[in-house]
Amino acid sequence: MKPRQRRLLWVLAGVVLCATAIMLTLRALNANVMFFYSPSQVHAGEAPQGAAFRLGGLVEAGSVQRSAEGVQVRFMVTDQVQRVAVHYQGLLPDLFREGKGVVVAGKLQSPGVFRATEVLAKHDENYMPPEAAKALEDAKAKP
């Protein structure tokens, strides 16, 4: 094999190695992407079935139900137009309250129930995630 052919072989091997590394990196990043949806978008069918996503809005007043052990919690998340039932098993953040902003991560189950794996509550009275604030504004603007 001539030196020129050997050099070409090394260059091709490097290109294949770089392409493989880029493909694996993009696949790993794509697996960790989690999109945000409002209750109105969930009811419109825009949210994926069986895939993880984030749901944001307000905890509906009077909707929080806790189990006797206090580990299982059911509540409604609303954007003041539509609402979605959320089931969560675990400890809630200290700032979790009815009427306050919340973002939950998990998967939508078939009968319209969102099974949450993580609950994030707003940290002070002036803060709401930008996505949740925009979803509330959009929901109010719709006729």
Give a structural overview:
The protein is of the alpha+beta class and 143 residues long. It folds into two domains: 1-33; 36-141, Beta Barrel (OB fold (Dihydrolipoamide Acetyltransferase, E2P)). 32% of the residues lie in helices and 31% in strands. It has a five-stranded mixed β-barrel. The protein is elongated and about 80 Å long.
* Strand content range: 25-35%
> Major β-sheet, in short?
5 strands, mixed, barrel
Strand order of the largest sheet: 2-4-5-7-6
CATH architecture verdict of the largest domain: Beta Barrel
Distance between the termini: 74 Å
Supply the number of helical segments.
Answer: 3
- The domain tally reads 2
Estimated helix fraction = 25-40%
Detail the poorly predicted runs.
Answer: none
According to CATH, the fold-level topology of the largest domain is: OB fold (Dihydrolipoamide Acetyltransferase, E2P)
Function: Heme chaperone required for the biogenesis of c-type cytochromes. Transiently binds heme delivered by CcmC and transfers the heme to apo-cytochromes in a process facilitated by CcmF and CcmH.
Binding site for heme: 123, 127
Pfam family, one: CcmE
Subcellular location: Cell membrane; Membrane
In short:
The protein has 143 residues and is α+β, with helices and mostly antiparallel strands. It contains 3 helices and 7 strands.
Topology:
Elements: H1 3-31, E1 36-37, H2 39-43, E2 52-59, E3 65-66, E4 72-78, E5 83-89, E6 101-109, E7 113-121, H3 130-141
Parallel strand pairs: 1-2, 5-7
Antiparallel strand pairs: 2-4, 2-6, 3-4, 4-5, 6-7
